Amino acid sequence: MAGNWLELLKQIAPHVKHAAVIRNPRVASGSGQYGAIQAVAPFLGMETSAIDARDAGEIERGIMALAPSSNAGLIVTANGATLVHRELIIALAARLKVPTVYWQRIFATSGGLISYGDDPIDQYRRAAS
């Protein structure tokens, strides 16, 4: 699914040549998702870089570094830190006009641009049946 986030970013913002990826390096899935994005990037003519999501300050510094670039986009990967800091991430991405793809619907319903991922409510319904 992580590779699809990069493809979606390229579809919604064709001018984007660089994707910053917010991930939690302490969580194995963070490295795995980032690796999948890196694998797809050359096929789309894109470069990637990681923004570690250990705390709010680190996230803010990483997103603010994208401000001078008009060809940068952002991907927010699945982890608890991004969920905890979602309001900060959404606000900074909107203020800086950075096209952003989020991993879960709650980001889009909270004001984020677009999300692509599984629906946990649907998963619970299926499990219950």
Summarize the structure.
By secondary structure, this protein is of the alpha/beta class.
Helix/strand layout:
Layout: H1 2-12, E1 18-23, H2 28-40, E2 47-52, H3 56-64, E3 72-76, H4 80-84, H5 86-95, E4 100-102, H6 105-109, E5 114-115, H7 120-128
Parallel strand pairs: 1-2, 1-3, 3-4, 4-5
Report on this model:
The chain is of the alpha/beta class. The chain has a single domain (2-128), classed as Response regulator (Rossmann fold, 3-Layer(aba) Sandwich). It is 48% helix and 17% strand. Helix 2 links the parallel strand 1 (18-23) and strand 2. Helix 1 (2-12) packs across helix 2 (28-40) and helix 3 runs parallel beside helix 5. The two termini are 26 Å apart. The mean pLDDT is 91.
CATH fold type = Rossmann fold
Give the overall shape, derived from the CA principal axes: globular
Distance between the termini: 26 Å
Order of helices and strands: HEHEHEHHEHEH
Count structural domains. Answer: 1
Number of helices: 7
User: Quick one: CATH class?
Assistant: Alpha Beta
The profile of the biggest β sheet is: 5 strands, parallel
Q: What would CATH call the architecture? A: 3-Layer(aba) Sandwich
**Secondary-structure class:** alpha/beta
CATH superfamily placement? Response regulator
Q: From the alpha-carbon coordinates, what is the Rg to the nearest angstrom?
A: 14 Å
Write down how many β-strands occur, each being a DSSP E stretch of 2 or more residues: 5
Note poorly predicted spans: none
User: What is the helix content?
Assistant: 40-55%
Mean pLDDT: 91
